[in-house]
Each structure stands twice: as C-alpha cells, then as structure tokens.
Specification:
The complex is a heterotrimer of chains A (355), B (392) and C (260). With 355 residues, chain A is α+β, with helices and mostly antiparallel strands. Chain A has 8 helices and 20 strands. Chain A has 2 domains: 226 residues, 3-Layer(aba) Sandwich (Rossmann fold), CATH 3.40.50.300; 117 residues, RNA polymerase II/Efflux pump adaptor protein, barrel-sandwich hybrid domain (OB fold (Dihydrolipoamide Acetyltransferase, E2P), Beta Barrel), CATH 2.40.50. The chains are: A alpha+beta (355), B mainly alpha (392), C mainly alpha (260). Chain C: This is ABC transporter permease.
Chain lengths: 355, 392, 260
C-alpha cells in the first residue's frame, strides 16, 4: 500500500534551533494518525508544514504522490480544525460553513444544500443564523468541524481541537470525531498532547520527542510495547525498574535487580547480556498476594500507603531496590501500611527498554 | 450601604472644582462665542429711546412725531464716533442710502444755532417708512445675519433667505476647501496608515516596537517642531528639492511649500499616528488564526483579506478616519505656516475675523459652523468606539 | 518573498516619512549660517546663544516655564480630584460629565480661542498670565483625567476594602493606598499637561498679550515672519525636553509595572 501522505526526510530550523529533524512518516488514505508529544516536540510544526503555513527547511511533503512543498495553503484542499476554532466572528454559523464552498465558486442552491447537510451532521441545523459568539464552546467546536468537512477535503488536520473543552464534553467529542472518521472514511492527522485522547481515537499514534518520532504504532503497541523510556513514561503511568540483563531467551530476557531478585520480561529493544536496562511494568498489571504465588516474576515488598480512587485502589510499595506502584481492581481487598506482600506479574506484562 | 450618601457627597465635592472650572472657562466661552454670532446690538446700544417708541408703530404709515423726536434725542446723545460708524454700517447694509442720510442728519443736529424741527425737515427720506422699517428691524438684539452669511446665505429686502451674490460668497468656498483638504489628508492617512498598521500587527518583538515607536515619536514631538521640520524639508533649497536635483530627477526646484502639496504632506505627517493607532488597536484584537483558517478553506490571500480582515478591521479604519478628519477640519497652525493664501482653511478665516478685523459676529458664526461639524462627527466617533468596547 | 520585500520596503519608507523630518531639523541648530538650509557651512552655538540672550526668545522661554508650571499645577489638582470623583458609579450623569471633561480635546482650538477671547476680555483677563494659564488648563485637563482615570481603573478595589477591613479610615485608605497606587498616573498626567502647555499656540494667540509670548508662540511668529536657525535651536530644545519628559513617563510606567 502506498502512502497517501508522505513526509520525506523533513528538517525544520528556526535559525539555529532544530524543531523537526530528518523526519520520515507515511500516512495511508483513510487512516487516523495522532501526533502525540509534549509541547515543543515538533508535532504542531509538522502539522503547520503539512497545512502550508510553514515551509520546510529541507525535505519533501508528498500528497497522493505529488510534492506539495510549493503549493500555497489555499490550493492544498485540506480541512483544518484549529485549536481555538478560528470561526469568523463577523459571519453567522451558516456563512462560516458556506465560506469554503463560496471560495470554490459553487452555486447558491448547492451551497445551501451542502451547508444544511453539514450542520445537520453536527446537530446544529437550528443555529445557522447565530453568530459564533452566541454559541457554547462545544457548539463552536462542532461548527469548526463541519466547516472543515463541508468541502470534502482530501485530508483533515486537527490541532489540539478539544483542548478548550471540559472533560465530559471532550470525551463525547472524541467519540463523535471517531465516528465521523469511520462513517466518511476521512484521512485525519490529529495533533494532541493528551495521551488518552490519542489512544482513544487513533488507528496509529506517532510519539514525538525533540523533533523526532520516538515510536509509531497502534495504540496497543505504543502502550504495551513502548520502544523507549520516553514513550513508556509519556504514555500512561509506569514503574521503571533498573537492572542488568543476565541472559536472553528468544523474545524474553532475564534481568537481575540490585536487590538480587530476578525479572523475566519481554524485550522491545535490542539488548545484550550484561547491559544495564530498564524494565517497564504497568501498575495495573501488578497483582498483590500475601503468599508467593507461582508466577514467574514475584518481588517482595512492603505496603507504604494505599488510596481508594473509586475505579481502582492505588497501592504504594517499598521494595529493596525500587518503589513500586500497583493499581488494583475495585474488587481487591484493602492493604494497610506495613503489610508484607508479593508484587507479581507475568513476563508478557513487562518490557525491557534500552536506557 | 450606610456609607453610600456620604461617599456620593464626597465624590461630588471632588468633581465640583473641575466641573465649575470647565463650565466657566470652556462651556461659557463657547456659549459666548455663539451668542456673539447672533447678537446684534450695534443699533440698539445707541438708540435706546427709539427702541421704546418704535414697537408701537404700525410699520406702514409715515413716522409719528414721537418717533422722530426719540430718534433725534438718541442721535444727539451719541458721543462715540466708532459706535456710530458701526451702527451706520449696520443700517446701510440693511438699506442703502443710510450712510449719506445719517451724515446729513447728524451734521444738521449738530447745528445748535439753527436746530431742526423734525427729521423730515432735514431730509424727506425720513418721511418714508422703509428707512424706519430698517431701524425697527435692526433694533432687535438678535440676528441670524452672521450665521446665514457663514454659509453664504442672506436675507433680501423682503426678509426671505436667499443665496448671497457670488462676490460675497467666500465662506462656502472656504468651507468646501476645508472639507476637501481634510478629506484628502484622511485618504492619504488611510492609504499609508492601514497597511502600516496591518504590517505592525502581524509582527512581534522588536520589529513591532520599532514600527509603533516610529508612530509615537512624532506624536510626542511638538507640533511646531514638526511644522518647522517640514518647512526645512519642503522649502526651495530644502532637503527634498536638493536630493531630487542631485539625483538629476528634476532640473529646477519643485514648488513644495506655500501650496496645497506642502499642506497635505505636512498634515498627513502630523495626523498619521491618529490613523495608525486606532486601526492597530482593532487589529490586535482579531485572532491570529483567522487568516490561516481562511487560507485553509481555500481563500486566495486577496479574497481572505476582503472577506475576513477587511470587515473585521473596518471599524478601526472608520474610527481612525473620523479622528483624522475631525482634527484636520479644525487645523490652523500647519496651513498657516506651510500653506499659501489659497490653502487657508476655516480656522484661519475665523482667526482672521477675530484677530485681524475684530468682527466677532462673523468669527462666532463661522466658529459655530465648525463647532457643529466637529461635534457631529465626534458623536459618530464616540458611538463607534462605544460599540467597539461593547463587542470585546 | 516579493510580498515580504514589498512589506519591508513599505514599512521602512513610512518609518522614514515619520521620523526623518524630526532628525533633519536637529543638526541645523548648530549651523553658523544665517539661513536655515543645508549644507551646514560650519558648526557653531551662535543660535543657542541667540536663544538665551535675545530678549524675545529669552522671555519666551521664561514665559513658557511660568505658564507651563501654572498649568501643570492647576490641571493636575483639578483633574486628579475630578478623576477620583468620577470613580463613584452612583454619580448622576457620570458618562455626560466624563464626556464634558474630555471635550476640550475635541473642540477646535480656534473656536475655543474666539470664545476665550470674548469671555476673558470681558473679565479683563486677556493679556495676563492668569488668562493664559486658565486657557491652557482647559485643554490640558483632559490628559490628566484620562491618565489618572486609567491608573485608578487599574487599582483592585479589594485592596482598598482590605485596608478598610484592617481598620483604616477612608482618608487613611486614600492617603496610604489609593494615592500611592495612582501616583504614576498622576505624574504622567502632570507631564502631559506640561507638554500640552508647552506646545500650545492657538489659544495663546487669542488670549496672551505681548508680555505672555510663549516659546511656541514665538516659534510660530518666527517661522511666519523671519525664519532663522534660531527655530532649529528652539526645536532642539523642545525635542530635548520631550525626550526627558518621555523618559519620565516611561520610568513611571516601569515603576508602576514593577509595583504590580
């Protein structure tokens, strides 16, 4: 399958400052790709270059096989949803949505038809005459969405579009956008710094750090099989345990901890025996038992604190070499501080990462 | 709210001094200027006895002996030649022939050896009602003569308003010229100031500071210094002519000073900040992502400007233009120093009437016209900026 | 790229148009020639000497200083008091009063001048310092009101309420809290009032007699009647004073910013 969008060795400098470094990325038609990373990681700059607001310092951006570096934004045919919506305050909702169609010289009746359909799609038909300032944040967001989709753009770009909404509305919009993506078969590039948003919506997530892509994969891959320490820490919560590789057996490695205990863990990176590495253990994959079970990995620990958080019980543990955190399901029993326990997890629930 | 009344009392006490000061030295002067323009006491002042008798007259029959006696008494009592001259001028403008009639009458009255019995015996024109009618009308302390003359209108013999003959219609020309020059300056300021404000608003950091500083610096500099500076630049051996001649672009010096070109250039320089600042203050409130949004929706930069930036910044342009226009129509110093005789605006004419010829009536009347024009435009401006404040 | 160049060229040319005249006049203050043109034959301070020794110029400078000081005092006191009064939202016709306070900025100077001459003439105040100071105060007071009102609007009401809750009487609140916080506004208002008086020509023309000729008035008639490099020297003086005044305002703003 050839890529619909292709970034080919993209570099972007602001003066001496490198924001995007030798970046390659391919996106298939109909795919939903999130660019995830902290602010300043280059994800927004990449989106701006795709949109045509920024020029690449070097490298080529291809859309459907054609280089678009020199195509001005207004000819790129990309629908963009901006962070703060960028609705035209002097036009009504209907006029906002009609704007891209007018720019394409469509007839009045067709525009009216399309606008009605686009507003219907986001359940705002009743608001066509209103000014954007008379709408709530969520409604404005939906207007921005329908304005970006009404002209059937080749690609839809979204720059942190849900950042200004409150949590409940944001989660609803995430599902709505995902639904639109599936129904209309859109190609979407979505920039966010919110990892749960990226995991919820995307076909693939590209994790950015310091102008480079650290890892790209399905939400399950980046969460369960983090390739680097940065990815493991940035996406979700994790216990990072330091140790030395003792031996390798196929896709698994035995790691000895400073306390002397051993962990058998799946391996993401290429490591060799004798190398010091990290093991990432997701807190919700950790079980606590009072007697040593039959699981491969079992670390002795003492409970220092436990907090009931509604949907889970969060237990802080002290282990001779590392503090650990475990998230237990709500059916778990309470653990009082001082209790001696064993923290157990299977070899598939942890991951060896190169330092 | 027990502190309410005393607090209000205190506030009023604080407001009162400035309020009284401005009513006394701002509102009252404007008021007295207006009353100057409609007051007409040149005749009433000298003829108090006639003023008592004339209202009883039926305005058609020949003068009664009482009227003649009263006027004779009044004229005998006049000892101020200048006031007499003013009155004669005033009466003569209402009815020609008064000048000769009055001088004949006063010299006859001065002849104490052979005192005249009545006025008709001095000159039989005194027997005709028209002359008495002119006096009766001129005795009214109020007149619309000056105000009408300010817009080139006047009353004919029968009291109807009509246009003054062309040789007296100078004010209309000057009013038109004032608005024309102010309009040209406004357009020049808008053509330079609007793009300038757009560029400044699109920049950031030191580049923006430099652009704004360049606008604020002249604003902070004395108007006279700026006018003097343009004098130096524009004069025949000035820097502009020198530069153009050195470059070989022109053979002889261009006439840049004491003409319209110089006035427009210097006034544009002086008023440009008033255009740039309001536009800039509107532009920076426009979200930065609207133009990118328009581009992403397929709008060519020119269409994006016309559909998005222009409508959103039009209020700034309107405010700036009004501000420039209001300031320009009242301008005095720059046209007075840089302009020629053909470039004098209404302020210069007012100053001429007031200082040069002590014609307070005319100065006041033209002042009223300028004041009304200014206040009307200012109320539009105030409404515009109030709406602006509401919107954001 | 050509778009960028066009913008750059346009901005540069406009900056040149705005600033060049002010710069062009300065060197001529130091010319030795009797005519006000370039090139400058040799440098000399003779025109500054003229400025400070010739009777007309010297008296004009002194007059400007007297009238400017009087105007500043009167306008600052009246304007500051009125701005404090305007803070109260319970005042009737608050908007109208405010507009009245600002209107002297709008009314054409010549119109006001005619009225002033008529009225002050009636009081026998024309050709007197008092008359000129009154006239200048009328046009200077709006600047004080705008500046002080701005500073007062920036004061968080809760600070004053806090002072009151801590046991301060209204007068103490004003003296210890409100006034110190508003001081930068009062100062820049005073500076603006002085600058306004310094630059006033038209009202002076109508109200002042030969004994109250100010520097601006003297420059006006000098440009009109016998232009000489003394103008440039006066302009140099003006610009210097302006720069000093500007620095005071900037410093007071920095002070205000630092205090917040």
């Amino acid at each position: 399958m050839t890529d619909f969008i292709r970034f080919d060795r993209i570099n972007k400098f602001y003066g001496p400052l490198c924001v995007v470094e030798n970046l390659d990325l391919g996106i298939a038609k109909g795919e939903f790709v999130s660019l995830l990373g902290p602010s300043g990681s280059g994800k927004t700059t990449l989106l701006m270059m795709l949109a045509g607001f920024e020029r690449t310092t070097s490298g080529t951006i291809l859309l459907d096989g054609t280089a678009i570096n020199d195509v001005p934004t207004y000819k790129r045919d990309m629908g963009i949803v901006f962070q703060s919506y960028a609705l035209f305050p002097h036009m009504s909702v209907g006029e906002n949505v009609a704007f891209p169609l007018q720019m394409r010289g469509m007839g009045k009746t067709e525009i009216a038809e399309r606008v009605a359909k686009a507003l219907d799609m986001v359940q705002l038909s009743a608001y066509a005459e209103r000014r954007p300032s008379q709408l709530s944040g969520g409604q404005q967001q939906r207007v921005a969405l329908s304005r970006a989709l009404v002209f059937e753009p080749r690609v839809v770009l979204m720059d942190e579009p849900l950042g200004a909404l409150d949590k409940q509305l944001r989660e609803q919009m995430q599902l709505d956008i995902r639904d639109l993506h599936r129904r209309l078969g859109l190609t979407i590039v979505f920039v966010t710094h919110d990892q749960s948003e990226a995991l919820t919506m995307s076909d693939r997530v590209a994790v950015f750090n310091k102008g480079k892509i650290e890892q790209i994969g399905t939400p399950r891959q980046v969460y369960d099989e983090p390739a680097t320490r940065f990815v493991a820490e940035f996406i979700g919560e994790t216990n990072l345990v330091e140790g030395v590789v003792e031996s390798l057996q196929g896709q698994e490695a035995t790691v000895r901890l400073p306390s002397g205990a051993q962990i058998v863990s799946a391996v993401s990176a290429t490591v060799s025996a004798g190398q010091s590495v990290y093991v990432s253990i997701r807190p919700e994959r950790v079980d606590l038992t009072e007697i040593r079970g039959d699981q491969l990995n079992c670390l002795e620990a003492e409970v220092t604190d436990s907090v009931y958080q509604g949907d889970h019980l969060r237990v802080q543990l002290h282990n001779p070499s590392h503090p650990l955190i475990a998230k237990l399901g709500r059916r778990s029993r309470e653990f009082s501080p001082g209790t001696k326990v064993f923290a157990a997890f299977s070899s598939g629930d942890c991951r060896v990462i190169a330092p | 709210m027990s502190a309410g009344p005393s607090r209000t009392g205190r506030s009023l006490l604080l407001l009162a001094p400035l309020l009284i000061f401005l009513v006394g030295f701002f509102v009252w002067p404007l008021f007295s200027m207006m009353s100057q323009s409609v007051s007409d006491t040149a005749v009433l002042r000298l003829l108090p006895r006639s003023a008592e008798v004339l209202p009883d007259w039926d305005r058609a029959s020949p003068p009664t002996p009482a009227m003649q006696a009263a006027l004779m008494e009044d004229l005998k009592a006049v000892d101020d030649d200048q006031a007499l001259g003013d009155m004669v001028r005033r009466l003569n403008s209402a009815r020609s022939g008064f000048r000769t009639l009055m001088s004949k009458t006063t010299s006859a009255l001065d002849d104490t050896a052979n005192p005249p019995v009545d006025l008709v015996s001095i000159d039989d024109r005194w027997g005709r009602p028209e002359f008495w009618l002119a006096i009766a009308d001129a005795l009214s302390p109020l007149t619309d003569r000056n105000l009408l003359a300010a817009v080139d209108l006047g009353r004919n013999a029968s009291g109807d308003i009509e246009h003054l003959p062309a040789e007296q219609s100078v004010n209309g020309v000057i009013l038109l010229r004032t608005f024309w020059i102010a309009g040209l300056v406004t357009i020049a300021c808008a053509c330079i100031g609007y793009p300038y404000a757009i560029i400044a608003a699109s920049l950031s950091g030191w580049k923006r500071d430099v652009m704004l500083g360049a606008v604020l610096l002249p604003l902070w500099t004395s108007l006279l210094v700026r006018t003097a500076a343009w004098f130096i630049l524009l004069q025949e051996q000035g820097l502009i002519n020198d530069a153009l001649q050195t470059l070989g672009l022109i053979d002889g010096p261009l006439p840049l000073i004491f003409n319209r070109t110089g006035v427009i250039i210097a006034m544009t320089h002086v008023l440009l900040p008033f255009m740039v600042l309001p536009i800039y203050s509107v532009l920076i409130t426009i979200p930065k992502n609207l133009m990118p949004a328009a581009a992403s929706l397929g709008a060519h930069p020119i269409r994006a400007f016309l559909r998005v930036l222009l409508p959103l910044s039009l209020r700034g342009v309107a405010s700036g233009s009004l501000l420039v226009f209001i300031s320009a129509i009242g301008y005095y110093i720059t046209p007075a120093l840089i302009g020629g005789p053909g470039d004098q605006m209404i302020s210069s004419i007012i100053a001429f009437y007031a200082i040069g010829s002590a014609n307070w009536g005319m100065a006041g009347a033209l002042g009223v016209v300028l004041l009304i024009a200014t206040l009307l435009l200012y109320s539009v401006y105030a409404r515009l900026s109030a709406e602006e404040a509401e919107r954001y | 790229m050509p778009m960028k160049f066009t913008k750059f060229a346009f901005a540069s040319l406009t900056i040149l148009f705005l600033v060049a005249p002010l710069i062009a006049i300065l060197p001529l203050a130091f010319t030795s020639s009797v005519i006000l043109t370039y090139p400058i034959p040799s440098w000399s301070l003779r025109w500054f000497e003229e400025l400070f020794t010739a009777d007309a110029w010297r008296r004009a400078i002194v007059n400007s200083f007297i009238i400017g000081t009087g105007t500043t005092l009167l306008a600052t006191v009246l304007g500051t008091a009125a701005s404090l009064g305007l803070r109260n939202r319970l005042i009737f016709f608050r908007g109208t009063i405010r507009t009245l306070f600002l209107l002297p900025m709008v009314v054409p100077a010549v119109v006001l001048g005619v009225g002033m001459q008529v009225l002050l003439g009636g009081f026998g105040l024309t050709n007197s310092y008092a008359g000129v100071i009154i006239a200048h105060t009328v046009v200077a007071v709006p600047f004080v009101v705008v500046s002080v009102s701005g500073a007062l609007a920036g004061i968080d009401r809760r600070v004053e309420l806090a002072a009151e809750s801590l046991g301060a009487s209204p007068i103490t609140v004003f003296r210890r809290v409100t006034l110190p916080l508003a001081m930068p506004g009062v100062l820049s208002g005073a500076v603006l009032a002085f600058a306004t008086s310094l630059d006033e020509v038209v009202l002076t023309l109508f109200v002042a007699g030969p004994n109250q000729r100010t520097l601006a008035r003297q420059m006006f008639s000098s440009i009109r009647e016998n232009i000489s490099p003394a103008i440039a020297a006066a302009a140099f003086l003006f610009i210097t004073v302006t720069v000093v005044i500007g620095l005071i305002v900037i410093l007071s703003n920095v002070m205000r910013a630092r205090r917040r």
